[in-house]
Amino acid sequence: MNIVFYVFLCVSLIQLFYFLFVFAKFSFINPNDNISQFPPISLLICARNEAENLEEFLPFFIEQKYPNFELVLINHASIDNTLDVIESFKKRYPKLIKIVNVAENEQFWGTKKYALTLGIKAATHESLVFSDADCKPASNNWLLEMSKQFNKKNTIVLGYGGYQKIKNSFLNKLIRFETLFTAIQYFSYAKLGIPYMGVGRNLGYTKTQFFKTNGFASHMKIRSGDDDLFVNQSANKYNTAICFTKDSFTVSVAKTTFKNWILQKRRHISTATYYKPIHKFLLGLFYVSQLLFWLLAIMLLLIQFKWIFVISIMTLRILVQYITIHQSAKKLNEKDLVFWSPFLEIFLIFIQLFIFIKNLFSKPTHW
């Protein structure tokens, strides 16, 4: 049992290192709100069978208080009345909206990346901001906040995309906690100078940056990853900014069944296998140490081996985690998750383990 205890000490130190020296990079900084760049913006939304969501959420994008932007709506081979909805908005806002209608193209596997590429080519402006049809900006200053981060140096802007809150729903808390913790990680790594991902529902980059890295060409065959894989291959410590002011968030409709959420997470985790080696190592080390921390702690407590030391180490780690997550949750308007964070973390760890094992034997095929 001494060996098990020493392994527990090692993984605890690794966990403390991540929380104190990696995630704290985001938790204890303030947003950079002293920028006054207002470049012309092309706002792109790619929609596939999203007629109802477009009806509900497009007005929030149209009502953005920004001096110079166009809204590029990409109909990605929809079989519902998505195109009709887009055209109805175009009639009402002819100068604001540009339509890109994309038919199925087997040569490019009919992916969202192909549709987005056509939308990017059709966009008028150099600075591009992206969102999804099933979400809305948290304020009518969202585009203003994201645009402030663009300059000659910053060609990629990472934003935060949260989820709507549903009262008395454990699944909703779990989804939002996973989203919060993912944001803590990608914001922190960006601040460390090793950005590795962003989320397509709140992301910006320039046309020049897109074509400089040949767009999605290196991963066009991979059905997901139009956001994180592009950022993974294109972002570096010199060209990436983060945006997390209160008005810069987007809010999406969360999954309401475990089955649909698990499928979504299977897609995301399968995409992560294509990250750069350094990113896979750092993310993998954190997850493995996190899993071992809880497994070994439970094992040592069950047999009461040096239980006082084990409880002391657990308490320290949970306290550090609580402080770090609390500081980040305040920034990202997710404070109601802080109290539940240790329980949500444990549940999430084992779901991720289940998904990882599941993906080893069968790849997700429904997108």
Account of the protein in words:
Keywords: Glycosyltransferase, Membrane, Transferase, Transmembrane, Transmembrane helix. The protein has 13 helices and ten strands. The chain has 367 residues and is an alpha/beta fold. Strand 1, helix 3 (51-62) and strand 2 (69-76) form a beta-alpha-beta unit. Helix 3 (51-62) runs parallel beside helix 4 (82-92) and helix 7 crosses helix 13 (341-361). The model has no long low-confidence stretch (mean pLDDT 93).
In short:
The protein has helices at 2-22, 24-27, 51-62, 82-92, 112-122, 142-147, 170-192, 207-212, 228-234, 258-272, 277-302, 307-331, 341-361; strands at 41-47, 69-76, 97-102, 127-132, 135-137, 156-158, 161-163, 203-206, 240-242, 250-252. By secondary structure, it is α/β, with parallel strands linked by helices. It folds into two domains: 2-26 and 277-359, no CATH class; 31-179 and 193-254, Spore Coat Polysaccharide Biosynthesis Protein SpsA, Chain A (Alpha-Beta Complex), CATH 3.90.550.
